[in-house]
Amino acid sequence: MNERTNLDIFTDSFLPLLHAGIAFTVPLTLISFALGLVLALLTALARLSDFYPIVWIARFYVWIIRGTPLLVQLFIIFYGLPSVGILIDAFPAAVIGFTLSVGAYGSEIIRAAIVSIPKGQWEAAFSLGETRLQALRRIILPQAARVSVPPLSNSFISLVKDTSLAATVTVTELFQKGQQITAAVYEPLLIYCEVALIYLIFCSILALLQRQLEIFFNRYYTA
Amino acid sequence: MIEVRELTKSFGDTPVLRGINLTLEQGQVLVLIGPSGSGKSTLLRCLNVLEMPTSGTVGIGKVRLEFRPNSKPRKADVLALRRQSGMVFQAYHLFPHFTALQNVMEGQITVRRKPKNEARTKALQLLAKVGLAERADSYPHQLSGGQQQRVGIARAMSTDPELLLFDEPTSALDPELVREVLRVIRELAEEGRTMIIVTHEMKFAREVADRIVLLDEGAIVEEGLPEQIFSQPREARTRQFLSLLMDQSTV
């Protein structure tokens, strides 16, 4: 049996790790973030509504999700719910957990962004005769979107790394794959650094995307 | 025709307007003057229902709406009344993510449901009218304060309101930019637009107004022709207010 160098181990494991990242980590992140954003917007609007039952439902949801660990939530969804007859596969269970998380934290970001738009913008829209919904859609949300880009990018980048928690509910995403390879070759330092490197690559791409998005939204602010 | 009957407005327990009665014929210009805190802006904002009046009746054009304490009017009625007037704000409040042209198209498209090309044609005409045809594609931050306010005037006219409301339209402007905005408003007056203007520019008020109303502590103190108000004010309060302004302008 010939001795493999560290470099061999590194190059041999790179593609399987990258594959796990692209096949699971990336879709898990993208799907959860997309659904989470929709949920976040709806929750933010619910919080800003003047109909109290809706406000309270939104506050309750944010309270529960922010007040309990994401890891525990994932365990409840994947390991807990089957005992009341709700069986969800590992991947969709993870998507549900992450979506709820993005929805709760994101709703506070979006709510803050909406509230930060000067009252005069609402009034100008109203004075033209626009309804509340028209003012929101045409005037307020486009401006709030610009304000939300940096904090939502934070959430997005956090989510990429949080998806490693899906390993605990049997999704063979990037980190889980790293554990499997480590068990086989027993080079934890090397393999986990490699795993970290791939997360870093993913997050760097997102940071570049954020930069582009900010340039796009700033087109009407800086000459 | 504009008719305001027994209009009151309180913020909590603080009365701001105490029974205002006003009528204004079509094509007339009314200038509201008065010390700060007298309720001028609140009155204007009540006509546009940016503030909900506590009680009283507002009629503009064909729409009349009665307000009662402790009962909210229907949203559709509020919208209908609001669409009778256009508002020009002290701080312009242009939509920063829209170009000048888009600012003037917005209400036409969302409120008047006009096709885009029609709205664009009309918006360009309105911008030309305020002397900004060549700045149609500029964003608000690329325009001077005077230019922004002229876009604001074009925007207020874009939905063809019966009545134009101006809430201290030149108070946020550098002195050298005031004139270009007043010139536009004066032209509108000459065209026979029905307007209510809150302003501290007394010389302008005297030139442009068909009628002057002096408001103090939420009530009308004196009302009359510009000549009469400025030359022979009947009320002591009016004389006091005007002489205070004269003092300031000589400082």
Account of the protein in words:
The complex is a heterodimer of chains A (223) and B (251). Chain A has 223 residues and is mainly alpha-helical. Helices cover 80% and strands 0% of the residues of chain A. The relative contact order of chain A is 0.15. The model of chain A has no long low-confidence stretch (mean pLDDT 95). Chain B is α/β, with parallel strands linked by helices. Chain B is 39% helix and 25% strand. Chain B contains nine helices and ten strands. In chain B, the strands form two sheets. A six-stranded mixed beta sheet of chain B has the order 6-7-8-3-9-10, with helices on both faces. In chain B, helix 3 crosses helix 4 (116-129), helix 3 (100-110) runs parallel beside helix 5 and helix 4 crosses helix 5 (145-157). The longest helix of chain B is centred in the last third of the chain and has 16 residues, at 175-190. Chain A binds chain B through residues 118, 120-121, 123-131, 134, 138-139, 142-143, 146, 220-221, 223, and chain B through 48, 50, 75, 79, 82-83, 85-87, 89, 91, 93-98, 106-107, 110-111, 139, 141-142, 155-156, 158-159.
Which labels suit this protein?
heterodimer, A: 223 residues, mainly alpha, MetI-like fold, 8 helices, 80% helix, B: 251 residues, alpha/beta, Rossmann fold, 2 domains, six-stranded mixed β-sheet, four-stranded antiparallel β-sheet, 9 helices, 25% strand
Largest beta-sheet details of chain A: none
In percent terms, what proportion of residues of chain A is strand? under 5%
Q: Helix- and strand-based class of chain A?
A: mainly alpha
Report the order of strands and helices of chain A.
HHHHHHHH
Question: Major beta sheet of chain B, specifics?
Answer: 6 strands, mixed
Question: CATH superfamily membership of the largest domain in chain B, which one?
Answer: P-loop containing nucleotide triphosphate hydrolases
